[in-house]
Amino acid sequence: MPMRWSPRLCLPIALLALACSAACSSQTAAPAPTAAATPARHPLSGLEVIPLTISQNGKSHAFRVEVAATLEQQQKGLMFRTAMGPDEGMLFPSDMPEPRSFWMKNTVIPLDIVFIGPDHLISNIAANAVPYSLDPIPSSGPAIAVLELNGGRAAQLGIMPGARVSW
């Protein structure tokens, strides 16, 4: 003989099922952090990679740049690197605006060395710095950061002193 459900029995069973469902859903694990929450890292250097934009005369160009934040990272820079993508670079930020000077020791590829003033405007560009050269390449004044791009890239994109750099 089939079992009959009484209306008095159905209500407590439904409430019990609802309570179990709520308890189980409140104990589910939080979703894993998204990729955006984790900083991107360059596969060769391991440095953090951030977006950087250079704007001038109504035009903007986006780059993905490695950030050489520590003294040790800045001393190594792009030494021994044999290639870099056209929209890649390396940013060397400073804690305080100060005159900066770079050289190309152990740097295999020619670079445009872009000096960025306290106002986030490009103060000067040393275009196509010669690989392996030990000659100092100075900023024209205090800089809050230096950006290294592939040699000739600034001219190719029409980037000149006075362009705004944001990161």
Relevant CATH superfamily: Protein of unknown function DUF192
**Structural class by helix and strand composition:** alpha+beta
Helix content: 10-25%
Largest sheet: 8 strands, mixed
- Average the pLDDT over all residues and give the rounded result: 86
Instruction: Catalogue the unreliable spans.
Output: 1-31
Overall CATH class: Mainly Beta
Radius of gyration: 28 Å
Termini distance? 76 Å
Please tell me what the overall shape is: globular
Question: What is the compact description of this entry?
Answer:
Helices cover 19% and strands 40% of the residues.
Describe this structure in words.
This protein has 167 residues and is of the alpha+beta class. It contains three helices and eight strands; from the N terminus they run αβββαββββαβ. It has helices at residues 7-26, 71-76, 153-157, and strands at 40-41, 48-56, 59-67, 88-102, 111-116, 122-129, 137-150, 164-166. Strands 1, 2, 3, 4, 5, 6, 7 and 8 form an eight-stranded mixed beta sheet that branches. The longest helix is centred in the first third of the chain and has 20 residues, at 7-26. It is globular, with a radius of gyration of 28 Å.
